[in-house]
Design brief:
Chains: A mainly alpha, B alpha+beta, C alpha+beta
Mean pLDDT of chain C: 82
Number of strands of chain B: 8
Radius of gyration of chain C: 28 Å
CATH class of chain B: Mainly Alpha
Oligomer: heterotrimer
Number of helices of chain C: 5
Strand order of the largest sheet of chain B: 1-2-3
Low-confidence stretches of chain B: 1-5, 7-13
Distance between the termini of chain B: 39 Å
Number of helices of chain B: 15
Structural class of chain B: alpha+beta
Shape of chain B: globular
Helix content of chain C: 25-40%
Order of helices and strands of chain B: EEEHHHHHEEHHHHHHEEEHHHH
Distance between the termini of chain C: 84 Å
Structural class of chain C: alpha+beta
CATH topology of the largest domain in chain C: Alpha-Beta Plaits
Low-confidence stretches of chain C: 165-179
Largest interface: B-C, 31 and 27 residues
Radius of gyration of chain B: 21 Å
CATH superfamily of chain B: Cytochrome-c3 Hydrogenase, chain B
CATH architecture of the largest domain in chain C: 2-Layer Sandwich
CATH architecture of chain B: Orthogonal Bundle
Number of domains of chain B: 1
Largest sheet of chain B: 3 strands, antiparallel
Largest sheet of chain C: 3 strands, antiparallel
Number of domains of chain C: 2
Chain lengths: ~350, ~375, ~180
């Protein structure tokens, strides 16, 4: 019986179970310890230590915070839409888990290698916006609705350049399978997509494409400097105002899980996934190491940006997307298309 | 951004929505922004403010009434507490008014030290105003850097008078303690350090495109509006009027120093921001010159044992961190004043807020409120 | 041309963001400046204004206060209550009771400047803590002086044989005072 599951045809099932548990643990721990990393990062950017009292160097802080959140009463205000109110935090967190199923962390560490992996990641990524809208709406609080509406309009505005950039990448890589995309970037760091476009003349503007992707990722996850809608909670109230205790904790975890997913996708698309920067030492556990190094570097940059800049004005944010990012990403899309077709065109001409 | 048709920007203002569609939002006396206990009742049409009415009085402590019941010396601690961020300036004004009335001569060394400590206080005050304002806008890091600089100033002040916020350092006729070389050397070292920090703040915050987009063109208070409301200080200089009490009504030994009066004509929040940053640089210039010129000598003049001002009216105005602060003492010959009038700058600075915030959206109005650099105890006294 | 200007503005704006990030990274790599307070403390400057205390005369160990009440009159917050009595063989009064209401004291120093005998000074105490409000609204300066005198007494050479030790001042209120 055990044989069936370990080496026989039931292997896929075992793999699935192991990965499910591992992902749950990974996302949960990440969400918790990313909060600590952010607070300590904030502290060090501000020349102070951050949390360092609870546990050695503050390492037990997220656990204590988690216990506090769990112990708090989850208040469901009267008059709210009961089902949606309770469901919204879950809808926030579940798509992040789903996305992680296809992301390859190393050569053989992945949930499932799906041919439309990239499409799946972005489809699930869009659902979390839905969750915030539901949460704001179900709260029966006019400020929450205003704030949720703003988050939706912000997310829609930044989905477009993000997808345009991803389509550009797709044209270059020719496949949506994430494992294959990483496989194409083997070799040294000059083979990574961010630099490959320059010397293979498929897209000389690739670093700028990466920057656009990064900015869109910040806006999608509602991180500063684009957190107008939820940091406005300092003034009126955010979309999460009626959530207390662990439901709020779930929204928070969902936000950090989204950051993890987005940074993983960025690593895979642009920075070579689990490939090493020197060409050797790519196999097995080394791949895991390189992947996490790159992913956490991107997360560090996300934290760095948050603690450096003030918030953008809401209309400036939308202007940035519609008036600057979309034309530029359209331009790179057309440029890449033209450059990819160029050899064929030249061949036909001569 | 396009506002709805009927609402125009600052200066005009028509209630566009019928009254049953607009709602009142209360920015209560307690909020996480760093202004103090100020309540603003905003009538909003969706996101646009149609009327913003400030309600003050939550920290009215009756300083002027206390002035009537205390002798002149006993009122000194009060002066530090009216505006705790510019405590030296306020004490200077009161002490100056009494000295003018009683014709007390202040030794030159004391005047120099008063100027040095006042300018250090101005830098400290601007650092808090700047840091708290950037924090309102979402940049949570510069306030910590500003407080690091402020620690150095406060350490110097603590060294000479023992207090860090409410100094009570000046006395009638001079100072309560002399300064020593540690203070003078510390002030000398502080000037180049602060210049380096100001350069860093320019690169980190002032040139930042996000901040510029938040502040440019927001909250225009032009010179005509300033005149109507009696606005002084960086708000007035940000509207293009180069009015500084240190030049217009010279007091103490300020005529001896060379410094510019920064003013920018735009009248928007960015102009007020730049005025404050430039003022910090000018304060550093004054401190440098004062440190070079400071003479030796006593720090306390001759003061009668029981201080009575002859009957009459005595005024003294200083350029405090936020504008023109004036003390007017009406005396009837006794040893307590008949009336102490404190003309505080923040009350006038808050006044154009109602008119200027018509037709703005809420975050812009709060950015403008931060640019006025209000300290609410100063408004309420 | 305005197209070029628009591009230039976008470029300059983007570079300003990178400059800002470089500065915060520089600050990130510097050591932090926090003093972890209960475990590390900062030295107090010499003129630090803690609550006032009676000065200990280093030669006799007594207080210099003669209960002249000048400090009581000089205080803007009326937070000092002094009482004294003339002891046997003394030319001036000695203080028997010196109560400070620290909850209303504003640390202005008017009392210290009013005192003609330098009998009070600022202490360097900044972390007073207690569980009862009376410890602050009726700070007993004479009791605190007695405690400090005991510490002082240990630094003095023992009296030579045959000479009497200087009599310590024993607080003996003459009239019962209502608090």
């Amino acid at each position: 019986m055990l044989d069936y599951f370990l080496t026989g045809p039931g292997q896929a099932f075992t793999r699935l179970i192991i990965y499910l548990v591992a992902f749950l643990a990974f996302v949960g721990l990440n969400a918790a310890y990313l909060v600590l990393a952010e607070r300590k990062g904030a502290g060090w950017f501000q020349r102070r230590p951050g949390p360092n009292e609870v546990g050695p160097a503050g390492l037990l802080q997220p656990i204590v915070d988690g216990v506090k959140l769990i112990v708090k009463q989850t208040i469901v205000p009267p008059g709210t839409d009961g089902l949606l109110f309770r469901l919204a935090p879950a809808i926030m967190l579940v798509p992040a888990f789903m996305c992680l199923a296809t992301i390859p962390y190393a050569e053989s560490v992945y949930g499932r290698s799906i041919n439309v992996g990239l499409l799946m990641v972005f489809s699930f990524g869009s659902i979390s916006v839905f969750a915030i809208m539901l949460g704001g709406w179900a709260s029966r609080n006019k400020y929450a609705v205003i704030s949720a509406a703003r988050i939706v309009s912000q997310n829609i505005a930044y989905e477009i350049p993000m997808l345009l950039v991803v389509i550009t990448m797709l044209m270059v890589t020719g496949t949506m399978n994430l494992q294959e995309i990483v496989g194409q970037q083997a070799g040294g760091f000059w083979h990574w997509n961010i630099l490959k476009g320059i010397w293979t003349l498929t897209n000389p503007l690739m670093p700028m494409t990466f920057v656009i992707f990064f900015i869109c990722m910040l806006a999608e996850t509602n991180r500063a400097p684009f957190d107008m809608a939820e940091a406005e909670s300092e003034l009126i109230a955010g979309a999460f105002t009626e959530y207390a205790g662990f439901s709020w904790g779930l929204f928070f975890m969902g936000e950090y899980a989204n950051i993890v997913v987005s940074c993983s996708v960025g690593t895979i698309l642009f920075l070579g996934g689990w490939q090493s920067p020197i060409g050797v030492l790519s196999g097995g556990a080394w791949g895991l190491l390189w992947f996490f190094a790159k992913m956490y570097l991107l997360i560090f940059i996300v934290i760095w940006i948050r603690w450096t800049f003030p918030r953008t004005q809401f209309y400036g944010l939308l202007n940035l997307s519609w008036k600057i990012l979309i034309p530029v990403s359209l331009f790179t899309l057309m440029l890449t298309g033209a450059l990819l077709r160029l050899p064929l065109l030249l061949h036909q001409l001569f | 951004m396009i506002p709805p048709k009927e609402i125009t920007y600052a200066g005009g203002g028509v209630l566009s929505a019928p009254p049953e569609e607009s709602f009142v939002l209360n920015l209560g006396p307690q909020h996480p922004a760093a202004h103090g206990v100020l309540r603003i009742k905003m009538t909003m049409d969706g996101e646009w403010i149609t009327r913003a009415e400030p309600v003050i009085g939550y920290i009215h402590r009756m300083h002027e009434k206390m002035g009537e019941n205390r002798t002149y010396a006993k009122f000194l601690p009060n002066t530090s507490r009216i505006d705790y961020l510019a405590a030296m300036h306020y004490t200077h004004a009161f002490v100056g008014a009494v000295e003018r009335g009683a014709r007390i001569e202040v030794p030159l060394r004391a005047e120099y030290i008063r100027v040095i400590t006042s300018e250090l206080q101005r830098i400290a005050s601007h650092l808090v105003g700047w840091g708290a304002w950037i924090m309102d806008l979402g940049g949570l890091t510069p306030i910590l850097y500003a407080f690091d600089d402020r620690e150095r100033i406060l350490d110097l002040m603590e060294h000479i008078c023992g207090a860090r916020l409410t100094y009570c350092y000046y006395r009638f006729g001079g100072l309560c303690n002399d300064v020593d070389d540690y203070f003078l050397q510390g002030a000398r070292d502080f000037v180049p350090y602060m210049r380096g920090r100001l350069k860093m703040y320019r690169a980190l915050v002032t040139d930042n495109i996000i901040l510029r987009k938040r502040l440019e063109g927001i909250g225009i208070i032009d010179a005509e509006m300033c005149r109507r409301y009696g606005v002084t200080g960086p708000v007035l200089r940000g509207a293009g009027v180069p009015y500084d009490v240190r030049r217009a009504e010279p007091y103490s030994i300020y005529p001896r120093f060379e410094f510019a009066i920064p003013h920018y004509p735009a009248g928007d929040s960015m102009a007020r921001y730049l005025v404050r940053m430039d003022e910090m640089e000018q304060s550093l210039r004054i401190i440098e010159q004062a440190l070079d010129q400071i003479p030796a000598g006593p720090v306390m003049g001759k003061v009668p044992r029981v201080l009575k001002l002859p009957a009459g009216d005595y005024c003294y105005a200083v350029e405090a961190g936020r504008g023109r602060f004036m003390v007017r003492i009406v005396s009837d010959g006794k040893d307590t004043p008949y009336r102490v009038k404190l003309r505080t700058p923040c009350f006038a600075n808050l006044s154009p807020f109602e008119e200027a915030s018509k037709g703005m959206i809420l975050p812009d109005a709060l950015a403008m409120l931060g640019s006025l650099d209000l300290v609410i105890p100063d408004i309420d006294r | 041309m305005s197209m070029i200007a628009a591009f230039q503005e976008v470029y300059r704006g983007f570079m300003s963001l990178l400059t800002g990030m470089r500065i915060t990274l520089g600050q990130f790599l510097k050591p932090n400046i926090t003093v972890q307070y209960p475990r590390q403390t900062l030295p107090m400057p010499a003129r630090f204004r803690g609550h006032i205390e009676l000065t200990l005369d280093p030669e006799t160990g007594k207080s210099l206060c003669t209960a002249c009440k000048l400090c009581e009159r000089a205080c803007p917050s009326e937070c000092i209550a002094v009482d004294g009595a003339k002891l046997e063989g003394q030319k001036t009064k000695s203080v028997t009771e010196y109560l400070l209401n620290f909850t209303t004291c504003s640390l202005c120093g008017a009392c210290i400047e009013a005192c003609p005998f330098d009998a009070i000074q600022f202490s360097k105490v900044y972390n007073v803590v207690s569980l009862s409000r009376d410890d602050f609204s009726r700070m007993d300066m004479v009791k605190q002086l007695a405690e400090r005198r005991q510490v002082w007494a240990q630094t003095q050479p023992p009296p030579a044989a045959g000479t009497a030790a200087a009599p310590a001042i024993v607080p003996q209120p003459q009239d019962p005072k209502t608090p």
